[in-house]
Amino acid sequence: MRRFQSLFLLFVFSFTLFFICFSSLSFAETLYVKSSKTKLRSSDNVKASVLGLLEKGTVVTVIVKSKRFFKVGLENGQKGWVFKFKLSKKAPAGGGSGGGGFADVLAGNQISANESTSASSIRGLSPVSENYAKSKGISTQNIEAVDKMEAFKIDSVELDKFLQEGQLGEYGP
């Protein structure tokens, strides 16, 4: 009887150890980076050093989730922390730096087709639209203003500074 109890306890211990060791592998969540130049940080803090920049579509495996950041592992074995809203369960489609958010518009990146209706003003007036605007009495000054807005570009450093100063995105409270 004592031998049976010892074997039973050994079995329970072995099963528990096996479950603990391999459960993290089976429950690991695979996510995708939504936008290019996503920062991989050394800790879950916006003031942490940047270990590298990840490209849109990079596959990551979630190791730990904190309030605003996820500790992730990359396919090359590197680990770091990423702002959770820069990650998606679905692989991003197409080019650009993804996300389709205000930051992408400011950075002059492509947006998805389902946003094309509102995007027409971002791209400026086509020759057909410009002629139509003129035929409706829209001033040349207003048409030139649209063209000027279309030409406006902001680089990623300026965008990051804007987000940081405004406490937006990963820099928010």
Structure overview:
With 173 residues, the chain is of the alpha+beta class. It folds into 2 domains: 28-103 and 154-171, SH3 Domains (SH3 type barrels), CATH 2.30.30.40; 109-151, no CATH class. The chain has 6 helices and 7 strands. The chain has a 5-stranded antiparallel beta sheet with strand order 6-5-4-1-7, with no helix packed on it. A hairpin with a 4-residue loop joins strand 5 (69-74) and strand 6 (79-83). The longest helix has 25 residues, at 2-26. The termini are far apart. Mean pLDDT is 76; it is low at 95-122.
Layout: helices, strands, pairs:
Layout: H1 2-26, E1 29-33, E2 38-41, E3 50-54, E4 59-65, E5 69-74, E6 79-83, E7 87-88, H2 102-106, H3 116-119, H4 127-135, H5 140-151, H6 156-165
Antiparallel strand pairs: 1-4, 1-7, 2-3, 4-5, 5-6
What is this entry, summarized?
By secondary structure, the chain is α+β, with helices and mostly antiparallel strands. The protein has helices spanning 2-26, 102-106, 116-119, 127-135, 140-151, 156-165; strands at 29-33, 38-41, 50-54, 59-65, 69-74, 79-83, 87-88.
